[in-house]
Every structure is written in C-alpha cells, then in structure tokens.
Write a structure and sequence with these properties.
The protein is mainly β. The chain has one helix and seven strands; from the N terminus they run ββαβββββ. The termini are far apart. The structure holds FE2/S2 (inorganic) cluster. GO terms for molecular function: iron-sulfur cluster binding; oxidoreductase activity.
C-alpha cells in the first residue's frame, strides 16, 4: 500500500477533489478535502515531523489516534494528533519536539 494520493482523474470511482493548502512551519503543502493532516504530509512524502526525547524522528505510528507520536500544533492549538485531525484549507501547522526540552522549535 502506498501513502500517495491517487489523482482524481485516474480514480475509477469518479471522485472530485477539493484542493486545500496547509503550511507546516511555514512551508506549503497541498492536499484535498477529507485528508487528515498526516495524510497530507505522507502524500507529500514527509514521514516525520517531530522528535522523541531521544531525538529519534516521529510521524505516524499507529495512525488511529492511540500512540500520540504524530502530535503537532494547529492554529496555536497544541498537541493535536495529525492522524485524527482533518486538514482544513489555511491550517497553520507547527511541529513540536520533546527533544532536550525543545518546544515548538524554540530552545529554552
Ligand atoms: S499516529 Fe498514533 S496517535 Fe497519530
């Protein structure tokens, strides 16, 4: 199975996409309505967006809202599970990290 999005034009179900754009740490990512934030990132080829306390990269682990490995800040709301939150056009996502006390990209 691939995390890549099947283009609507080649989808045999005849789906119509409503495009959206989110930003992650200021970088734009495009997706379609109905995708989760994690889905938008995975479809763009990004597999990690935060760090564990050890510094190890984290992204989607369970994909069902149980492990909290995918946490991000969305429109200033911290600790949002990217695998559970549907992306909305204009969402401003900020990555989080637990590595060495770092929060939202800022060192203490
Ligand atoms: S990947 Fe496990 S909670 Fe999101």
């Amino acid at each position: 199975m691939s995390p890549r999005l099947v283009p609507a034009g080649s989808d045999p179900a005849g789906r119509r996409d409503r495009p959206l754009t989110i930003t992650v740490d200021g970088d734009p990512y495009t997706g379609v309505a109905g995708q989760t934030l994690a889905g938008v990132l995975l479809a763009a080829g990004r597999t990690s967006w935060r760090q564990a306390p050890s510094g190890a990269p984290r992204g989607v682990f369970c994909g069902i809202g149980v492990c909290f490995d995918c946490l991000v800040t969305v429109n200033d709301e911290r600790d949002v599970r990217a695998c559970r939150r549907r992306a909305r056009d204009g969402d401003a996502v900020t990555t989080q990290s637990r590595a060495t006390g770092e929060r939202d990209g800022q060192r203490p």
